[in-house]
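Reviewers of the previous submission asked for a worked example of the structure-prediction workflow described in the proposal, so we include one complete record here. The input consisted solely of the amino acid sequence. No template or homolog information was supplied to the procedure at any stage.
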Amino acid sequence: MATAPLETLRDDSGKPRFLISDLCVYLESYLEQEQIREVYRAYLFSADAHEGQKRLSGEPYIYHPLAVARILADLQMDYKCLMAAILHDVIEDTPTAKEHIAEQFGEEIAELVDGVSKLTQVDFRSRAEAQAASFRKMLLAMTRDIRVVMIKLADRVHNMRTLGVMPPEKARRIARETLEIYAPIAHRLGMNSMRNELEELCFTAYWPIRHRVIQNAVKKARGNRKQVLGKIEKAIHTRLEQEKVPAQVSGREKHPYSIYRKMKEKKLSFHEVVDVYAFRIIVDRRDTCYRVLGLVHNLYKPVPGRFKDYIAIPKANGYQSLHTVLFGPHGIPIEIQIRTEEMSRIAESGIAAHWLYKAVEKKHDLAHAGASDWLNNLLELQKRAGSDSIEFLEHVKIDLFPDEVYIFTPMGEIMVLPKGATVIDLAYAIHSDLGNQCVAARINRRLVPLRTRLHSGETVEVITSPGARPNPAWLNFVVTGKARANIRGYLKNLKRNEAVLLGRRLLEKELVSCGRSLGEIAPVELEHLFQEFRLQGVDDLFEEVGLGNRMPLLIARRLVNENVKTRAHTIEEAQSAIPLAIHGTEGMVVKFAKCCRPIPGDEIVSAFSPGTGIVVHRQECRNIDMRKHGDRWLDVRWEDEPRGEFNTEIKVEVSNKRGVLATVAAAISGSGSNIETVSLDELDGLTSSLTLVLTVDNRKHLATIMRRLRSLPTVLRISRMMR
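From that input alone, the workflow returned the following structure tokens.
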């Protein structure tokens, strides 16, 4: 039974009709009577709950949830999804509790409604954090049931359709959020008609003048295009009829936002975008698609490099089609998409076209499989982001990519990644452990570094090492949310472990100066401290101290329950001044100041940096001011045998002679050191100044390097730098 889309139903004044009777009549086309009665029961419950509430437009509030259900009915969603859509604002905007909905309609519908509801009972530090937390809640509910996000998308479509009653600033904010998050989610789930509508509505609300200019230009250009479109369409029809290929051919007009985005991204003029004529050819079978491709290539010459086979290699959201660009009459570019009716349904409705909830899974259901992969990826992002909702939202935004590259593994498996993805992104896409341990890769059997960007069609083999670990510098070039979340998650755990160890050492040092030790502190004393500071346990306390968020002196004072300074005078002065030993391998929670670059052998002092740990300076550093934040300075010393390599900076004045830099570099290398960075400034025509950052073991090693450099005839002066 063919039924008109519900959006076309209007009252005598031309406004859309919001009647439950219209919805029930439409539902008869695909639902059973018992299911329609359940939808009607949900409507009565929602209408009663929203009684007396009105929207900004002045309409009864129930019009909105009913309109959301009508949008989902056009996608032929199941009756429970429609019931949840009608009830979706009941928890958030009325006193009705989730438990009451569960009693009336069952746990499944209550979970769907709760998944769409915002977090309103929690206090947040900012509006951005509240929005991110509510969005995170919705996405995690979506991983349990995809219908949650479909209800939310339909809710956003109706809100965007009625955005005109909102204050301009709020309308722009909602439009921007929709363009950044909800339209890309619709695209990611293959729901292109919903995505296109959201983008057009956002374009109208966010850039009204630009939308009006492009829309008027399209109308003006349309008159000149009709004749050319008709001529090309007739030529394609004639060729297909000659070969007895049944097909539907239709010309496509680009949407204003699509035109605007293409002009902006590719820096094209309006006429360069609009002068491309686009056609869609829909056939009965997959093999006919390739036959039609050959026919149109014989009719008009193809543009080299502009053919894409999304049938053999579908997009991540399940989209399948053949794309080609041809030289039309008088050199006019013609874009052609060739697909089957089934592919066309998936292209427009995505996962909604293959709604198989709790049904037998079909292997050819590419939209459903693509959505499942993405949902599993979201779960991993959630685990890695921990409690930070804003970070989780940023990871999701990164993953809502518009373009893909297709990579082959050595076993011939196809991996889909966002445009600009690197070897590291691929490694994490395959498995988190592979990403954590990757050290290099081979692209088409050629060895390449990890930051190499990937291109479609390449065969990539990731090389790993058991001892390898993620590098913080990777965050500068990875593009996928999964890679970024995994790297950040690993570094967070690493930083926490290092902070716990440092915090324990710092607290033990202060307690020793008070004549106590950690082992002597009763558990009940620690419990009082945990409750006061809202900490979970002793490791959280050590972490807070190690990161510089809490001063070890004050914690020690609380634990011994007396004034530390008074107590210190009753103990040997030497014991109260025990400095903390620096090993050089503390990791991320002990940093060496770049202004003076201390190395073993220097007299040092350190300062607490909240959230970071401690920063070590040379005692003669001009950036040290003990009077400022005096309680944050800490006495430290080098361990007897510090381990690791340390950076230091030297300035070398040299004669301007050919090969002088190579001579200096060779002398440094011969002394067992590496040059991290080098910069050259010409002082006058005869001399230049080299500023070098070197890796050294200690002051003795640095002295050896400087002696060797002084022995070079081209070196005039050398000194260690301090900024």
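The first strand starts at residue 248 and ends at 252. We consider this example representative of the routine output the project will generate in years two and three.
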